[in-house]
């Protein structure tokens, strides 16, 4: 996974613990982690009721400083409920580990206890072939109650003697009989069962820059090269397409030449027909007179004089009975025709002649099709 | 060379390549719409010409042209054209039993881009080439209800005529009628060209139809 775990061995080379996760990153991308054997740590259980979460780290450091038997020390703290579990070790071990692995402090440190198997209740044992001794952990309601380390697993007699000499163990809940024999020791867990509250100073950097930067640059280079190649190929293909489109223009024009000639020929004849059509008015004079006659006679009037000189028409109308026509009715009737506008009364001529004038609207020329014949 | 310096050099090379790639990207962004525009122009050119059956349009237009040529008498001599126009109107009045007085007005005008007969110089390109027109004044009495039939005959007759002014005063109607004709050489040329093209288009379309029909008939025989 993200770490290469090494169980510290004070007597020789450190033992690398195999990663068991599904995702295993290459070693140059993972971070180094030192696991301190339980035999080289001291364990303390401190009540932390009322300590705010934000101050818990400082609280753990202060407690480690107060309880440490070493001149300089490293520590790991885990909070569970109202209790703070504290492991303290000699920081000389970390220097030794750094020398072995030639790292400049870029590693994290955890106690071996955090790799123990957990249990809801009872006692679990934690041991590893690479480290000496065995650790017993007492659990209650899934919370760690106590941790004991033995050079060798004690016999019943030794255990009873220990309980007599240290009565607080019975108070913590340790059983009176030997809780675990050597055969039931379980293998260590692959991942720690809790997070350390006090990471090691100087161990914060989790990336191996010497490997990470070249990797990042390589990925960026590959991506950039791919992108550039794609852009270049697009550019070249567009340029070629434009060049071929431009070069083929003359050939294309030659292909379209017969169609172009047909179009010009047809257009010339259509223009000729349109010009011929324009010689005739869209409404002939006899149609106009035939359409206007009922409009005027319906008003009870007779045409005495008319002068039709398109677009102007002047007409003198007279009532046969000698009366005068209703001007609004006559003008309204005239303007009801769609081709008449600007109808107005001009004056009275003679005794009973009423002169009107109006203009003929130029009709909207319909879209001419080629097939229109006179 | 320290690793840091090596990384910096590598980064500088990457930045250089990136700037080149950015230039290519801009060029691609410029070339892409240009190519699409060229393709659209090419497509539009083709579809504009191919979407309309110009041969069929020309055939229709030629038929319409012949119909219009039928309404425009051929004019070889202007005086004769005017006299014929007066005679035709006079015959019309006689046929309708209307008492008409016919007089010519102004000069006969020949218009169009190549008009050479006489009259005003033709500079209006919208007018028909070789068009000739003459104007007559017709005075008709209103008695007998002959006026409307006369106007209808004048405007809807075989020859193209236009009533330019219509006046009724003191019991008489006065019509200013314009009669159109076409110079004989122009009319013959246009008619011959129209007939020739109609024949060519008809022949071409019938040969195409025969070509299309041949495979199916061969298949049926087999």
Q: Can you put this structure into words, describing what you see?
A:
The complex is a heterodimer of chains A (374) and B (222). Chain A is α+β, with helices and mostly antiparallel strands. Chain A folds into 3 domains: 3-207, no CATH class; 215-276; 285-360, Gyrase A, domain 2 (2-Layer Sandwich). In chain A, 34% of the residues lie in helices and 25% in strands. Chain A contains 8 helices and 14 strands. Chain A has helices at 56-67, 92-101, 156-165, 167-172, 209-247, 249-277, 285-298, 327-335; strands at 3-7, 15-17, 31-36, 41-47, 73-80, 83-90, 107-111, 122-126, 134-140, 143-150, 302-309, 312-318, 340-349, 353-360. In chain A, the strands form 4 sheets. Chain A has a 4-stranded mixed β-sheet with strand order 2-1-3-7, with helices on one face. Chain A is elongated and about 155 Å long. In chain A, 21% of the residues are buried. Chain B is an alpha+beta fold. Chain B has a domain at 75-181: 2-Layer Sandwich (Alpha-Beta Plaits). Chain B has 5 helices and 5 strands; from the N terminus they run H-H-E-H-E-E-H-E-E-H. In chain B, a hairpin with a 2-residue loop joins strand 4 and strand 5. The longest helix of chain B has 48 residues, at 3-50. The relative contact order of chain B is 0.12. Chains A and B meet through helix 5, helix 6, helix 7 and strand 11 of A and helix 1, helix 2, helix 4, strand 4 and helix 5 of B. Strand 11 of chain A pairs antiparallel with strand 4 (161-169) of chain B.
């Amino acid at each position: 996974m993200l770490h290469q775990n090494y169980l510290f061995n004070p007597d020789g080379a450190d033992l690398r613990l195999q990663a068991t996760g599904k995702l295993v990153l290459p070693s140059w991308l993972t971070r180094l982690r030192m696991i301190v054997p339980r035999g080289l740590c001291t364990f303390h259980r401190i009540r932390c009721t009322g300590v705010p979460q934000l101050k818990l780290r400082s609280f753990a450091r202060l407690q480690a400083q107060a309880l440490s038997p070493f001149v300089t020390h490293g520590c790991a703290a885990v909070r569970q409920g109202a209790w703070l579990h504290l492991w303290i070790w000699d920081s000389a071990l970390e220097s030794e580990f750094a020398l072995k692995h030639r790292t400049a402090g870029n590693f994290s440190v955890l106690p071996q206890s955090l790799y123990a198997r957990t249990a809801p209740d009872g006692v679990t044992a934690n041991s590893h072939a690479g480290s000496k001794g065995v650790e017993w952990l007492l659990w209650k309601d899934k919370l760690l109650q106590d941790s004991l380390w033995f050079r060798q697993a004690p016999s019943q007699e030794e255990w009873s003697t220990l309980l007599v000499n240290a009565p607080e163990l019975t108070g913590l809940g340790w059983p009176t009989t030997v809780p675990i024999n050597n055969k039931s020791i379980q293998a260590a867990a692959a991942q720690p069962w809790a997070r350390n509250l006090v990471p090691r100073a100087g161990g914060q950097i989790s990336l191996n820059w010497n490997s990470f930067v070249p990797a990042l640059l390589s990925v960026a280079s590959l991506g950039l090269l791919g992108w550039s190649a794609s852009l270049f190929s697009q550019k070249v293909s567009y340029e070629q397409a434009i060049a071929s489109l431009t070069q083929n223009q003359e050939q294309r024009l030659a292909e379209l030449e017969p169609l172009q000639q047909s179009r010009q020929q047809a257009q010339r004849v259509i223009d000729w027909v349109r010009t011929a059509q324009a010689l005739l008015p869209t409404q002939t004079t006899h149609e106009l007179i035939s359409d206007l006659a009922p409009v005027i006679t319906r008003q009870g009037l007779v045409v005495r004089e008319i002068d039709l000189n398109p677009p102007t028409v002047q007409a003198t109308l007279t009532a046969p009975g000698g009366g005068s026509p209703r001007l609004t009715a006559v003008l309204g009737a005239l303007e009801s025709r769609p081709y008449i506008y600007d109808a107005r009364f001009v004056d009275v001529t003679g005794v009973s002649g009423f002169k009107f004038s109006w203009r003929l609207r130029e009709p909207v020329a319909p879209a001419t099709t080629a097939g229109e014949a006179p | 060379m320290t690793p840091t310096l090596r990384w910096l050099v590598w980064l500088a090379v990457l930045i250089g390549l990136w700037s080149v790639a950015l230039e290519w990207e801009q060029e691609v962004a410029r070339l892409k719409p240009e190519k699409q525009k060229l393709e659209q122009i090419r497509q539009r050119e083709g579809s504009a010409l191919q979407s309309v059956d110009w041969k069929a349009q020309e055939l229709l237009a030629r038929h319409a042209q012949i119909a219009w040529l039928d309404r425009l008498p051929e004019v070889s001599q202007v005086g004769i054209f005017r006299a014929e126009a007066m005679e035709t109107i006079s015959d019309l009045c006689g046929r309708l039993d209307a008492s008409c007085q016919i007089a010519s007005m102004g000069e006969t005008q020949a218009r169009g881009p190549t008009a050479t007969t006489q009259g005003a110089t033709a500079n209006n390109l919208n007018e028909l080439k070789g068009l000739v027109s003459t104007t007559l004044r017709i005075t008709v009495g209103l008695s007998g209800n002959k006026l409307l039939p006369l106007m209808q005959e004048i405007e809807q007759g075989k020859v193209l005529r236009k009533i330019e002014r219509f006046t009724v005063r003191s019991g008489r109607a006065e019509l200013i009628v314009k009669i159109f004709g076409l110079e004989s050489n122009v009319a013959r040329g246009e008619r011959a060209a129209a007939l020739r093209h109609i024949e060519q288009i008809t022949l071409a379309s019938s040969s195409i139809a025969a070509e299309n029909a041949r495979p199916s008939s061969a298949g049926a025989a087999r």
